[in-house]
Design goal:
globular; 164 residues; five-stranded mixed β-sheet
């Protein structure tokens, strides 16, 4: 069993509220637009981190993290990317691959809009944790936390961190 904290779009922001939830987790996953690499350096000091770079990220983040991160957590096939789209409207750069080889859990960021949706066509769960940073058009900072136990994704919670 793994407790996962999923965040995205920090845009160089990290604070004690985020770190409080980091302490709950076994792993932290970041779906891109890290901003200052100090954010991921701080996260890695607390818990194991899996991340991807996003469109605002510079050379340091792009050298450290991939554009796509596909792995197994327990028995769940996970794919994280920053600009992924949504069920029925996947980004053209991943559309063919996701149709041919869909994961069980597909995660992206970028939109700053929290969304969790089951894709019946591809039989996968899509998650976008919204944005937990203070930059962007979102009104409320958000993250997700959940548990992966074997091949089950369960105990999903939306975390609201207050106004940006």
């Amino acid at each position: 069993m793994k407790k996962i904290l999923l965040l995205s779009d920090t845009h160089s922001h990290i604070d004690d509220i985020i770190l409080k939830y980091v302490e709950w987790s076994d792993e932290v996953w970041h779906a891109g637009d890290i901003g200052d690499i100090k954010v991921t350096d701080i996260l890695k000091k607390h818990k194991p981190l899996r991340a991807v770079y996003g469109n605002i990220d510079g050379v340091e983040a792009r050298n450290e993290f991939p554009l796509h991160n596909r792995f197994f957590c327990e028995k769940v096939d996970v794919w994280i990317t920053h600009i992924g789209g949504y069920p029925g409207k996947y980004n053209q750069n991943i559309r063919e691959e996701i149709k041919v080889n869909p994961p069980k859990l597909f995660i992206c960021g970028h939109s700053h809009i929290l969304k969790v949706q089951f894709d019946k066509t591809l039989n996968l769960l899509h998650m976008n944790p919204g944005a937990c940073g203070k930059s962007g058009f979102h009104q409320v900072r958000t993250m997700l936390r959940f548990v992966i136990d074997g091949d089950s994704i369960k105990d999903l919670e939306v975390i609201e961190l207050g106004k940006r």
